[in-house]
């Protein structure tokens, strides 16, 4: 008898088993990667559908209790669409009208030659204008600017069409997130590599993060609208309360902001010759209103996210850089869930 391992002993079997395990793991990772690539173009729609589902879940439960799962989800989606699309359509219509009126005003000023009188009233500007005319062909520059604005307008329309499709897809996915939310949670519990308790903690953390971001965004938007309305009242603009409402609504949209209102207003004041008011509005908008978003928002949500203000700030800005507008939500979710998962592993390593 010898101690040598006979053929078919456990060691070759273990090696073979390890190879098959690695093969199955590699094949699974490949298909997971393909699935992520398939979902990537719709990441923005999925993100906002999830956000809306979390925010409107409580009122939806009351509707579902009366209408049933499918009809309740359809009615909830309709209500959410009216709440969101209505104000956006109102703001868009108002801004387009103001832009048309502003363009007509500038064209009138140029056609009537009032800009010449304006330059004569400010000799230092006339000197600058003469130097510019000596260095550049203003007609060529203006034609290029016109072409740029035309192309920018076409690009804006194209992007608006894409955004509209994203919104429609978000509402479509919202229906299923509301109707089949219990089945979705059960699927997550089955597929998650963590225990059921840990997976439920991750779900709660994601929910709390979404709540913090949405309510923090609304609070900052209200603050920015109030700051904008105050400066418009101080500078004797007409309807400061109305413009405060417009700026507050614009502050909610990640790709826009209050600058859409106060920058043209600053230019208008400069054209009117109200240089002190234009400088005041420009500084107030660029320093006070703009900085309130970056300073106040992280302070409001950092406690709920269980993050320091600095990581919360990095999570939001880094998320926007990485994912676009939806990164405002995905960035903090990624950072908070990462910290929670690392805590899971630390506890397992210490046991």
Strand residues, percent: under 5%
For the secondary structure, the number of strands is 0
Instruction: Give the CA-based shape.
Output: globular
Q: Uncertain segments of ≥5 residues (pLDDT<50)?
A: none
- The radius of gyration computed from the alpha-carbon positions, rounded to a whole number of angstroms, is 28 Å
Strand/helix succession = HHHHHHHHHHHHHH
Class by alpha and beta content: mainly alpha
**How helix-rich are the residues, as a percent range?**
over 70%
Q: Write down the overall mean pLDDT.
A: 77
What are the defining features of this structure?
87% helix; 14 helices; mainly alpha; 351 residues
Set down the secondary structure blueprint.
Layout lengths: L9 H30 L3 H13 L1 H11 L1 H43 L2 H8 L1 H13 L2 H42 L1 H11 L4 H39 L5 H13 L6 H13 L3 H31 L3 H15 L3 H24 L1
Tell me about this structure:
There is one protein chain. The protein has a domain at 191-351. 87% of the residues lie in helices and 0% in strands. The chain has helices at 10-39, 43-55, 57-67, 69-111, 114-121, 123-135, 138-179, 181-191, 196-234, 240-252, 259-271, 275-305, 309-323, 327-350. Helix 11 (259-271) runs antiparallel to helix 12, helix 12 packs across helix 13 (309-323) and helix 13 (309-323) packs across helix 14. The longest helix has 43 residues, at 69-111. The mean pLDDT is 77.
């Amino acid at each position: 008898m010898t101690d040598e391992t006979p053929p078919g002993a456990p060691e070759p079997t273990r090696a073979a088993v390890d190879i098959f395990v690695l093969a199955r793991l590699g094949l699974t990772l490949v298909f997971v990667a393909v699935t992520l690539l398939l979902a990537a173009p719709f990441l923005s729609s999925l993100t906002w559908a999830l956000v809306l589902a979390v925010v409107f879940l409580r009122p939806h439960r009351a509707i579902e209790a009366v209408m049933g799962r499918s009809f309740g989800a359809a009615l909830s989606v309709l209500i959410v669409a009216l709440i969101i699309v209505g104000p956006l359509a109102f703001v868009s219509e108002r801004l387009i009208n103001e832009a048309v009126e502003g363009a007509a005003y500038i064209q009138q000023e140029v056609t009537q030659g009032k800009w010449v009188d304006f330059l004569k009233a400010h000799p230092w500007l006339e000197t600058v204008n003469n130097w510019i005319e000596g260095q550049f062909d203003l007609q060529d520059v203006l034609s290029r600017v016109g072409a740029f604005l035309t192309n920018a307008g076409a690009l804006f329309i194209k992007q608006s069409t894409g955004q509209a499709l994203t919104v429609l897809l978000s509402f479509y996915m919202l229906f299923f997130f509301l109707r089949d939310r219990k089945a979705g949670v059960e699927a997550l519990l089955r597929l998650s590599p963590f225990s059921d308790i840990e997976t439920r903690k991750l779900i709660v953390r994601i929910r709390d993060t979404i709540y913090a971001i949405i309510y923090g965004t609304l609070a900052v938007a209200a603050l920015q609208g109030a700051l904008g309305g105050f400066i418009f009242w101080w500078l004797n603009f007409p309807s400061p309360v109305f413009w405060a409402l417009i700026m507050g609504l614009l502050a909610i949209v990640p790709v826009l902001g209050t600058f859409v209102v106060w920058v043209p207003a600053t230019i208008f004041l400069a054209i009117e010759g109200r240089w002190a008011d234009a400088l005041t509005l420009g500084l107030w908008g660029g320093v006070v209103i703009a900085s309130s978003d970056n300073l106040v928002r992280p302070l409001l949500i950092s406690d709920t996210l269980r993050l320091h203000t600095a990581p919360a700030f990095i999570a939001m800005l880094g998320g926007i850089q990485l994912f676009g507008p939806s990164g405002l939500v995905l960035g903090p979710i990624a950072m908070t869930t990462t910290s929670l998962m690392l805590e899971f592993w630390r506890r397992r390593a210490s046991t």
